Input
Amino acid sequence: MTRRLLASYLGLTVVILATLEIPLAINYADHQRDDLVSNLVRDGFTVGSFVEDTLENRNSVDLASVARTYAERTGGRIVIVNGDGWIVADSTQDASSATADDFSTRPEIEAALRGEIATGTRHSNTLNTDLLYVAVPVASSGKVHGAVRITYSTDQLEDRWRSYVLTLAGVALVSTSAAALMGVLFARWVSRPLRLLERTAADLGSGHTESRADIASGPPEVRALGTTFNAMARQIDDL
Output
């Protein structure tokens, strides 16, 4: 009986923990991605406002230095293109080796040059990882002068998610251990007086009419059962 009660108690605990923690893990992953996208969109517009005059040829700013500085501080890759979709700065290239690649046909750049915000995830064969990207337009007075695209490896998001899942697993382990200890105590509290009552009934059946059940311990229902049993035992003894 003790094992069955303990198994039932632990089973209920596992079901409750799974019901709570699995949605938490899923919601955490979604929240982390949404939060990162929001931050990248904000960063894209911030960088765009800083380089806007340069793309309009109204002043001269070292765009390559801007891109490298951002990448060093955040760990993401940033690409700045002009109004025709040609790269004018790439954080993965220095000024001496920079190449003017045409990014105008890339869907996210096309959307940004139309004045739209583009976000999504794609796989990079070069890096062999998934990348989260954000592309925002650089515009003023209703005219788009270029675009800023920021890509960020999802490996860091996955690392955060795994760390969070391990934390949840630790909480579940501690909770299950505590539930197991409480379950053992509860099962013994219930089963011990029942086993004593069973032995008393066996003694009574063997002719020991003076046997009485212990009604000093156990749940109220078991003590009530013991009281009823003792009343029956007294009647049998009287007879």
Notes: The two ends are 34 Å apart (CA to CA).
